[in-house]
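Worked Example 4.2. Consider the chain below.
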Amino acid sequence: MAVAFNSRVFMRGIAGKSSSADLGNRVSGVCFSAGGVSSGVKLGVRATLQVDLEALEVPRLDDSADGRLGLDVVSEGELREKGFLGTRKTKLVCTIGPACCSLQDLEKLALSGMNVARLNMCHNTREWHRDVIRKIKKLNEEKGFCVSVMIDTEGSQIQVVDHGAPSSVKAEDESIWLFTTQKFEGSRPFTVQANYEGFSEGITVGDELVFDGGMASFEVIEKIGNDLRCKCTDPGLLLPRAKLSFWRDGKLVEKNSELPTISTKDWADIEFGISEDVDFIAVSFVKDANAIIQLKSYLSDKSSKSIGVLAKIESLESLQHLEEIVEASDGIMVARGDLGVEIPLEQIPTVQAEITQVCRQLNRPVIVASQLLESMVEYPIPTRAEVADVSEAVRQYADALMLSGESAIGPYGDKALSVLQMASSRMELWSREENRQSALHQHQLGVSLPDRIAEQICSCAVEMANNLGVDAIFVYTKHGQMASLLSRNRPNSPIFAFTDNNSARMRMNLQWGVTPILVELSEDMEANIMKTIDLIKMKGVLEEGDAVLVVSDITKAFQSIQVKTIV
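Applying the procedure from the previous section yields the following structure tokens:
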């Protein structure tokens, strides 16, 4: 993000109708200072703050090519109904499966607030996925939605097993099952097929085999070559393509494998994702930062657009390398289902909170996933405990919440999404009313002076927005970086990010509190501001007396903060 070293911050404004600060007198002062730059540049660079008392009267624009505003229909409807402070800030991700893959079902999810559609490459064919992706893009183009597309790689799947039946199979108490590496088509009675030849290496008679995080448990009673004969000790449902883990004396049996994080099939799926112009790729079973770095380098060579790379945290090994994985990635998914297989259940809440905090410190969006509303796979209403779980993730300021089986295979996917929407909106309102805004302990991200200045500008801007009680924050950004820095500080006001880069727009769909808007921008910031405010007014969601704080990184000469009151 290029800015001149003599970066100046200007603020022009007047107190808004909800302002809690007195701007009745002209104010000027210092927002921050920065020093310690490389040789050849003067030390002690200062960004100043200047307030002039003038309101903004915007001239009308005609409905020309410059008069188009890429505000999606769902955000527009929410703004009309609830106003700026009533907009939902937590983003919603839905896994698409056979229960919601028709054009009509996808439109229902989009209308209910789906921001990102996730496609799990473990299931279905590439033709099926291609059809879904094209339906989503058709809805975006023809109906005015802004739904991003994420593909989720299968991973090496060292310990994934499948009984071959199309649906779940019941394991009864003390029934005897064979877990085998033998390959066969279809299903066999009391037989489960393992994907990986070495799945039983290091396993001994008496070890406990836990199916899908505790859905059923078995005791190993005999080892036959690579196969295991097991007795069911805790009966339950065996789902297709589930993960198993081994335990000995109450501790997880750690299994090391030389298999790569990104398998041959994954690379083919990634090529498919590039060809279909997806917005995010989530990488499964990440062990450390190396696979993420490798994939990002590959994408920079192969793809003309910027595709976000998300790392899934779902193992002990990924927790041990958490910070380096977060720094290397463009976002994180907390895969609590698989993670709960490898760590004690009672540790899940604190680990989730820790991951969320690290992501916020390092300015990466974080998705809380797995079993949020698991009961809604079968029932039309959630349990009260599930609603409390969702609310806690929102209270922790997670960027996004994700539905898995609830939307992919459950008959109540749109209802589950509505529950996420209502619960997150209510918790956000409660947090604001109770003044529970958590101040972020500043962790410096930028190394260069321009990046450090951008961080400070965004921190000051959010503090100003909260103190002044402005109705909204408008940010004009090329690649979304400044919008992400604003989001990191979790302001009370919603953030509207104007960009002329569609890739940046779709990636901002995962960022807390950010409504990305595609619009033509120029180097003339005053013209950009007047044009976009006029277009927003034409939509009927910006009224006389509304106060907006404006931040920009469009011009290379300087970055700015302004406060505008609409007249």
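The CA atoms of residues 395 and 427 lie 7 Å apart. The chain is about 30% helix and 25% strand. Compare this with Example 4.1 before moving on.
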